[in-house]
Every structure is written in structure tokens, then in C-alpha cells.
Amino acid sequence: MPSLVRGVRGAVARFSRTRFFRRVGPTVMPPLERGIGWLTRGRIQMSGLLVPSLVLHSTGARSGLERDTALMYCPEGADGMLVTGSNFARDNHPAWTANLLAHPDAAVSVRGRRIAVRASLIGDDEREDVWRFIEGQWPGYRGYERASGRILRIFRLTPTG
């Protein structure tokens, strides 16, 4: 079974790096994620069927309002999570990364369970090691960084409760 999951993830990873997906994904994926989340009361995320996924509950950097964002994550250790601001390889950083920079205390929902977390931006000293770890779980993911032309923000989310 692990080889089947790895094969499916590899195929999805290749598709997600295509120009077609980068153009259509930002329009199609968020409403689909919200719809499935609403139907299942947050217990299932569409992307979670193929990769570990969570809903990030952050505080808006400017508005101060709670913002929810469905994200893929890489489990790290027993409780840690890594999230990457790829933004479908667009030129700009996604808004949720600015939210975490301004307000690092946040929460995540994983399989319907809400967990308080503290976000810390991965520094230059550990970026290469973290990228190797992420690509071990999601092959070719760093291609988003090359395609975007910017340094992607990577955050470590550590449970605080």
C-alpha cells in the first residue's frame, strides 16, 4: 500500500506543477475545499484524500479577523507540522503567511480536531534540510519555488496545548 500511495502522490505532484493546474487551481480548489469541509463539518478535506491536510485558523494581519485556509502539510515528528506558502507558484506570498508573521499564535483543524499552535518561520540555517524533508514526502514540491521566482515561506507549526 505505501508504494501505491507514493505512486499516486507522485502523479498528483506532477499534475500540480503543470501550467494548467497553476492557472486553474487557485480558482477551482478553494471553493471545492470549502464545500467538502462544509458537507463533512470539517472532518474531511478534498486534498486530505491524497496528502496530509489541515485548516489553518489564523488572525488577519490587517483585519484582525479569523481567517481559515485549507493547506497541505508535512507531519514532522510526533506533533509538528510544516506548511509552505507556495500559492500555486504565483509571484506573491499567500495572505496566510503574512497573517502568521504578524500573529504567530494560531490554530489548526486536523480531521475535525482543533489544535492551538505557534508558527515559526524556517530560517536560512535550516531551509535546505527542511526542503529535503518536505520533498521526501511530496516529491518535486520545491519546483513551486523555482516557478514562482521567490523564496517560499515555510512555517513550523508546534502545538501549544
Class based on secondary structure composition and strand pairing: alpha+beta
Query: If you compute it from the alpha carbons, what radius of gyration comes out, rounded to the nearest whole angstrom?
Result: 15 Å
Task: Please tell me what the overall shape is.
Answer: globular
- Please tally the β strands and state the result: 7
Average pLDDT: 84
> Within the largest sheet, what's the order of strands?
2-1-5-6-7-4-3
Largest sheet: 7 strands, antiparallel
Query: CATH superfamily membership, which one?
Result: Electron Transport, Fmn-binding Protein, Chain A
> Which range best describes the helical content: under 10%, 10-25%, 25-40%, 40-55%, 55-70% or over 70%?
25-40%
Query: Count the helices. How many?
Result: 5
Count of separate structural domains = 1
Low-pLDDT stretches are none
Helix-strand string? HHEEEEHEEHHE
Question: Which percent band covers the strand fraction?
Answer: 25-35%
Distance between the termini: 33 Å
Enter the CATH topology name: Pnp Oxidase, Chain A
Label the CATH architecture. Answer: Roll
| CATH C-level name | Mainly Beta
